[in-house]
Amino acid sequence: QKEVEQDPGPLSVPEGAIVSLNCTYSNSAFQYFMWYRQYSRKGPELLMYTYSSGNKEDGRFTAQVDKSSKYISLFIRDSQPSDSATYLCAMNKIGTDKLIFGTGTRLQVFP
Amino acid sequence: DAGITQSPRHKVTETGTPVTLRCHQTENHRYMYWYRQDPGHGLRLIHYSYGVKDTDKGEVSDGYSVSRSKTEDFLLTLESATSSQTSVYFCAIRETGSNYGYTFGSGTRLTVV
Predict the structure, then answer these.
(1) Between chains, do B44 and A101 touch, taking CB under 8 Å as contact?
(2) Given this model, what pLDDT does residue A94 score?
(3) B96 neighbors B29 (Cβ within 8 angstroms)
(4) pLDDT computed for residue A76 by the predictor
(5) Contacts with B62 (C-beta within 8 Å, 6 or more apart), sequence order
(6) Per-residue pLDDT band at B2 (split at 50, 70, 90)
(7) Do the chains contact at B43 and A101, CB–CB below 8 Å?
(8) CA distance B9 to A86
(9) Section A9-25 average pLDDT
(10) Over the stretch B44-53, which tens digit does the pLDDT of each residue have?
């Protein structure tokens, strides 16, 4: 079993839709949670990060962490065609140097 | 890309040949990482470095070696390339003192024929 599970998609939604992307994890020691966005043939770029449980909002993006369920989510409101990319969740533990990634979910937003 | 340069961007090589990929940073960060990205597996850590001459293995280190003789350069070597090492390789740096500040390079697309 992988430490981090993520549905690969693809997820196809119309412009303006609310998108929900999710990851589950098995190791309760994870404390730092990140979402990366990766455009085709580019490197991943950090989109949002949270520490421990709770919500964080940045413009159209909201990240949620539920440590009791070992479940993290990224919500995109008013999705745009420019949001079409692969979204990767990532996490690491306090005191370690290793970032563990999900497999990524490919999102397509059509006009 | 936050001062990270990977070279080459693309490479085709034959099975059994050695290959070296280079990652160069201009920001003097201590931590550097090599990942590979494959369909269905996401990004997997190969090796990482926490300082000059200080390196450690990741989850998929077999068949790879690394060297870091200068802060700015982190080299990944495939000793004898195999077709299973066909992949996209990403270098990353972590900002000193940050648990989140990982920045990735643009990647090297390697094909082993």
Answers:
(1) yes
(2) 76
(3) yes
(4) 98
(5) none
(6) low
(7) yes
(8) 20
(9) 96
(10) 999 999 999 9
Number of inter-chain CB pairs under 8 A, A vs B: 52
d(CA B107, CA B113): 19
pLDDT of A37: 97
Q: Is A86 on the interface with B (CB under 8 A)?
A: no
Please choose, from the candidates B61, B68, B33, the residue with its C-alpha nearest in 3D space to the C-alpha of residue A43.
B33
Task: Report d(CA B22, CA A110) in Å as an integer.
Answer: 37
The beta-carbon neighbor of B102 closest among A6, A41, A99 is: A99
pLDDT digits (tens, 9 = 90+) for B85-104: 999 999 999 987 777 778 99
Nearest Cβ partner for A103 among B41, B99, B107? B41
Residue from B27, B49, B21 nearest B108 by CA: B21
Residues of chain A positioned with their CB less than 8 A from the CB of B95: none
Percentages helix, strand, coil for chain A (3-state, rounded to 5) are: 5, 60, 40
Could you tell me the two tokens for B109?
Answer: 């697309």
β-pairing, A11-14 vs A105-110, is parallel
Find all residues with CB under 8 Å of B49, minimum gap 6, and list them. B31, B32, B33, B55, B56, B66, B68, B74
Looking at per-residue confidence, does A31 or B66 come out higher? Answer: B66
Characterize the bridge pairing of strands B108-112 and B87-94: antiparallel
Q: What is the CA radius of gyration of chain B?
A: 13
Q: What would the mean pLDDT of B67-91 be, rounded to a whole number?
A: 97
Question: Are the CB atoms for B103 and A42 separated by under 8 Å?
Answer: no
